[in-house]
């Protein structure tokens, strides 16, 4: 998102040395929805009737509930995501933003229900792969998000996706109030057999039991959100012992009322318990956040030290789907920064 149209960032309000440390950390974005990262300046060029900034960028804005958020995603997505090329332009803007946040590795997902209204998902992925291939300094992996009730409605599209070389993996999206259906473990297992990575949203809108279900029934080692795991000490121990990573989105959780304030966020307790947590923006267009700001609030509101922030950044790069030599270089850079601090 363009700095000129945003609210003042949280990073600028903290101690300059800490801000410089956050900027310098090599980072991963593991939980970033393309549908939630629209390029505002380009959108306003096409729709000049839109206001100078969307209302949900206001720092005090909170969504009434997840349904209101989904409605906003659908409204703005219908204005912009109308062709595979628009998906590609969105990723290009995301990569510019990622470079400004010193992101070295990025995973992004497209939402299948929206994508199929535009073009075959494989066609969109092909455009995205071309954009990703030209991104210097950033490793990009492409995911498709399936909702919990997509299995029967989109069975043919899912089969085509699993055969697509441009697809790196699957994510489970949507309302957690929908029970996990029997097709999901079968598709997740088949995806892994075909060399795709699998992860799942759980423990954001739903209870800790949904995180356990994703780990034990879907056999995933990456949970998107997962913050309500803190409600079940036995589950926390399971996540730690199995090396499950939680891709946490602090400011997203605040804006969606998952937590009443950042000071109450479970990431601190999970981190102290030895669960691998990462820091991510989720849907930065709809939450008005940048990755540096998510790191900053952990320091200012939850007392995370520079060593803690470095550990979170390292967790992201350990979870990345990259060659080991590349990972080792990034981790060495983080260790040098932490040592100097």
Please outline the helices and strands:
Elements: H1 16-24, E1 27-33, H2 40-46, H3 66-80, H4 84-100, E2 103-111, H5 112-115, H6 121-133, E3 139-147, H7 150-153, H8 155-162, E4 169-173, H9 183-193, E5 197-198, E6 200-202, H10 208-217, E7 222-225, H11 233-242, E8 245-248, H12 250-255, H13 267-272, E9 276-279, H14 284-287, H15 291-302, H16 306-319, H17 324-340
Parallel strand pairs: 1-2, 2-3, 3-4, 4-5, 6-7, 7-8, 8-9
Helix pairs in contact: 4-6, 16-17
Describe the protein.
The protein is α/β, with parallel strands linked by helices and 341 residues long. The protein has one domain: Metal-dependent hydrolases (TIM Barrel), CATH 3.20.20.140. It has 17 helices and 9 strands. The chain has helices at residues 16-24, 40-46, 66-80, 84-100, 112-115, 121-133, 150-153, 155-162, 183-193, 208-217, 233-242, 250-255, 267-272, 284-287, 291-302, 306-319, 324-340, and strands at residues 27-33, 103-111, 139-147, 169-173, 197-198, 200-202, 222-225, 245-248, 276-279. The strands form 2 sheets. The chain has a 5-stranded parallel β-sheet with strand order 1-2-3-4-5. It has a 4-stranded parallel β-sheet with strand order 6-7-8-9. Strand 7, helix 11 and strand 8 (245-248) form a beta-alpha-beta unit. Helix 4 (84-100) runs parallel beside helix 6 and helix 16 (306-319) runs antiparallel to helix 17 (324-340). It is globular and about 50 Å long. It starts with 15 loop residues before the first helix and ends with a helix. The model is unreliable at 1-5 (pLDDT under 50).
Q: Any key phrases for this structure?
A:
341 residues; globular; 5-stranded parallel beta sheet; 4-stranded parallel beta sheet; TIM Barrel; disordered N terminus; single chain; alpha/beta; 17 helices; 49% helix
């Amino acid at each position: 998102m363009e700095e000129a149209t945003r609210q003042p960032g949280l990073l600028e309000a903290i101690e300059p040395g800490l801000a410089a440390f956050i900027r310098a950390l090599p980072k991963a974005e593991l939980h970033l929805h393309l549908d939630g990262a629209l390029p505002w300046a380009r959108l306003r060029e096409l729709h000049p009737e839109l206001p100078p900034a969307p209302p949900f960028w206001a720092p005090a804005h909170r969504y009434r509930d997840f349904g209101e958020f989904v409605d906003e995603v659908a409204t703005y997505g219908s204005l912009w995501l109308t062709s595979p090329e628009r998906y590609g332009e969105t990723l290009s803007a995301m990569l510019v933003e990622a470079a400004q946040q010193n992101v070295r590795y990025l995973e992004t997902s497209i939402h299948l229900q929206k994508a199929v209204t535009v073009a075959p998902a494989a066609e969109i992925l092909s455009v995205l792969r071309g954009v990703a291939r030209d991104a210097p300094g950033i490793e990009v992996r492409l995911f498709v998000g399936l909702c919990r009730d997509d299995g029967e409605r989109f069975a043919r599209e899912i089969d085509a996706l699993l055969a697509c070389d441009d697809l790196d993996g699957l994510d489970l999206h949507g309302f957690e109030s929908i029970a996990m259906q029997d097709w999901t473990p079968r598709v997740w297992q088949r995806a892994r057999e075909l060399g795709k990575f699998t992860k799942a949203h759980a423990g954001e809108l739903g209870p800790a039991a949904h995180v356990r279900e994703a780990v034990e029934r879907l056999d995933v080692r990456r949970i998107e959100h997962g913050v309500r795991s803190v409600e079940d000490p036995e589950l926390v121990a399971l996540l730690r012992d199995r090396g499950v990573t939680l891709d946490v989105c602090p400011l997203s959780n605040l804006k969606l009322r998952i937590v009443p304030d950042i000071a109450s966020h479970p990431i601190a307790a999970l981190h102290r318990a030895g669960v691998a947590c990462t820091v991510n923006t989720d849907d930065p267009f709809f939450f008005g956040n940048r990755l540096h700001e998510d790191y900053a609030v952990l320091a200012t509101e939850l007392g995370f030290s520079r060593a803690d922030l470095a550990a979170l950044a390292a967790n992201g790069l350990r979870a990345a789907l990259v060659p080991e030599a590349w990972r080792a270089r990034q981790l060495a850079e983080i260790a040098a920064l932490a040592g100097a601090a």
